[in-house]
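Retro notes (design track)

What went well: tokenization of the new backbones is finally stable.
What didn't: we kept losing track of which sequence belonged to which structure.
Fix going forward: every design gets posted as structure first, then sequence, in one message. First example under the new rule, 471 residues:
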């Protein structure tokens, strides 16, 4: 059947192009945002028309939920707009991602343990934000996904972190469930991944998502599901989820023996009773990733001991600038995530800093910090500061005023636990230059993109130092 949607325009703004996905919850199209000069976006039509005003309001609430979650976590796909077509079909406008969903990745071969841990860490971080809840009408409301499965986990490629995992379709299963006729008992979800209580129509909490995640993890590690239903029907899968015991994981990974901590964690998620599953995805993450002893907590005397890794930053070896709250003050800081052995190796080394600036084509500062030891060499950390952004201008001016900054270290193995800090001083001539650059940037007019200036500064630094750096 010929698809008549390509070329169609929605909300006098989004021009539909090619279909890029199709599933039980709706069809997805690549589209151009003509208001933003043709920026690519993804538009998902929900496979359910809105039959009354109550359903319309429910869709609006779910769209706002998705938008909030996408802003709170980099591991939830970002929803930027929503609407309803003339024929009453709701649609979401989402960030366009290039990559594959998890089902495409694990279909030819399951994941080795390291990649599995990388993926599941990001999935858990996204789910943790949802389960923690968002603010609706002044109240914190926990969000349950209800349809965790391979096709709702998308893996995009990021230049800074490599595999970037995002969860799709928050709220859509519940929206469609509540939009169906009240006279029918329609199950909307995915039979192979649904929890027993979901199939029984019970009220759900976050532990239902944890069960579905257990099904997903089993498949990520082995390429198969833990149950063999008598038939691919509701009754067949219900009996499997409610009564069958999952096949042991021993010997099912093509990469060799799985760590006991991972096997125990997956099986714990598949417990029939919600009370026997992990209490939270954070607890699950500790079992899956952090089975080695955690480092001791920082001393309460450390002024930065309450710092927590921001939820909107990926768990990866990255560096970024951000204010740190210390004793009712906001201090400019450099935040760093490294492997624990690298932190131990470099944190006590001699520290240096430098600032490179280009006023044109776009005013930009490259902030460089180095930790040096004669035997180990240098470990370089860098962060770009876009001086046309008012908040960055304020940050840089405050950096110059204070004259010092902490480098906050976080361990990649224990991402929510602050490890330690090093405070570095900025020389007086550098502080003076920082202020001059801010004043210059306020009155300058960019003639090209920020990326061009970043390339200029990166080339300048490479020519001077040729270091191994974190970008």
């Amino acid at each position: 059947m010929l698809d008549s949607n390509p070329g169609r325009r929605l909300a006098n703004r989004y021009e539909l192009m090619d279909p890029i996905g199709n599933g039980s919850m709706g069809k997805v199209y690549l589209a151009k945002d003509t208001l933003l000069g043709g920026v690519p976006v993804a538009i998902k039509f929900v496979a359910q028309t809105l039959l009354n005003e109550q359903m319309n309001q429910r869709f609006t609430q779910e769209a706002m939920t998705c938008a909030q979650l996408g802003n709170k976590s980099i591991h939830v796909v970002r929803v930027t707009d929503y609407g309803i077509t003339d024929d009453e079909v709701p649609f979401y406008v989402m960030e366009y991602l290039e990559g594959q969903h998890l089902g495409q990745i694990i279909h030819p071969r399951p994941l080795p343990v390291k990649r599995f841990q990388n993926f599941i860490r990001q999935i858990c971080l996204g789910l943790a934000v949802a389960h923690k809840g968002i603010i609706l009408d002044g109240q914190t409301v926990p969000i349950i996904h209800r349809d965790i499965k391979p096709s709702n986990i998308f893996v995009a490629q990021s230049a800074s972190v490599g595999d970037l995992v995002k969860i799709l379709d928050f709220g859509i299963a519940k929206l469609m469930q509540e939009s169906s006729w009240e006279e029918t008992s329609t199950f909307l979800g995915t039979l192979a991944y649904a929890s027993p209580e979901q199939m029984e129509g019970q009220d759900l909490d976050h532990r239902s998502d944890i069960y579905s995640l257990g099904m997903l993890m089993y498949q990520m590690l082995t390429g198969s599901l833990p149950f063999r239903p008598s038939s691919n029907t509701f009754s067949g899968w219900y009996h499997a989820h409610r009564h069958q015991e999952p096949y042991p994981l021993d010997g099912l990974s093509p990469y060799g023996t799985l760590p006991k901590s991972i096997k125990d964690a997956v099986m714990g998620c598949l417990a029939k009773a919600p009370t026997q599953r992990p209490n939270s995805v954070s607890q699950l993450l500790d079992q899956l990733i952090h089975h080695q002893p955690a480092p001791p907590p920082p001393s309460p005397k450390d002024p930065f001991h309450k710092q927590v890794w921001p939820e909107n930053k990926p768990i990866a070896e990255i560096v970024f600038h951000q204010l740190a709250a210390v004793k009712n003050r906001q201090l400019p800081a450099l935040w760093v995530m490294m492997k624990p052995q690298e932190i131990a190796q470099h944190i006590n080394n001699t520290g240096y800093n430098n600032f490179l600036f280009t006023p044109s084509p776009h005013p930009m500062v490259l902030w460089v910090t180095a930790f040096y030891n004669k035997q180990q060499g240098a470990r370089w950390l860098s962060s770009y500061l876009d001086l046309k952004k008012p908040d960055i201008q304020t940050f840089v001016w405050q950096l110059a005023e204070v004259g010092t900054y902490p480098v906050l270290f976080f361990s990649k193995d224990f991402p929510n636990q602050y490890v330690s800090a090093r405070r570095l001083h900025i020389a007086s001539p550098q502080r003076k230059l920082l202020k001059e650059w801010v004043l210059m940037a306020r009155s300058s007019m960019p003639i090209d993109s920020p990326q061009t200036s970043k390339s200029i500064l990166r080339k300048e630094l490479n020519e001077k130092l040729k270091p191994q750096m974190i970008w």
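Added context from the reviewer: Residues 319-470 form one domain.
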